[in-house]
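Dear H.,

Thanks for agreeing to be a second pair of eyes. The structure we're designing against is below in token form, covering all 145 positions.
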């Protein structure tokens, strides 16, 4: 595996964690949204990761010889929470049903924050790996001088 492939692996991880963080922030921003264009309250969204073979034009020949493709990550799909919404009794609310209950998104802000911290740490780990690879490339070039 070449050092350039390691950069593409870390880049794929950063991209996946960025999308996950965007979804988590969207979830938190819509925690009280009772009406959407699709109808009903906002539905929580989350990213599902899957492995993805990474390639680099610099190392294509080496990968064929070694038969060791590097594996990164991609967002395979975005799942939407299909649980029933949380019903709260608020008879004066414009979205209240005939019994006075309003359907709110079923999500826990504390859980969303923990997931957001996890996505942030994952992103930071990929940045650290990328920095280490960059330093290795730089040292290799210094040795060749």
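And this is the sequence the design step returned. I haven't edited it by hand at all.
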């Amino acid at each position: 595996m070449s050092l350039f492939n390691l950069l593409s692996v870390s880049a794929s991880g950063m991209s996946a964690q960025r999308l996950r963080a965007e979804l988590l922030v969207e979830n938190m921003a819509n925690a009280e949204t009772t009406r959407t264009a699709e109808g009903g309250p906002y539905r929580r969204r989350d990213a599902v990761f899957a492995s993805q073979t990474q390639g680099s034009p610099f190392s294509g020949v080496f990968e064929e010889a070694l038969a060791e493709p590097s594996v990164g990550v991609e967002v395979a799909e975005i799942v939407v929470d299909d649980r029933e919404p949380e019903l709260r009794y608020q008879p004066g609310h414009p979205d209240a049903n005939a019994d006075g209950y309003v359907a709110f998104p079923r999500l826990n802000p504390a859980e969303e924050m923990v997931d957001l911290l996890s996505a942030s740490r994952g992103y930071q780990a990929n940045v650290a790996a990328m920095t280490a690879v960059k330093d290795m490339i730089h040292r290799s070039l210094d040795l060749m001088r």
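Two observations from my side: The mean pLDDT is 89. The chain has one domain: 3-144.

Warmly,
E.
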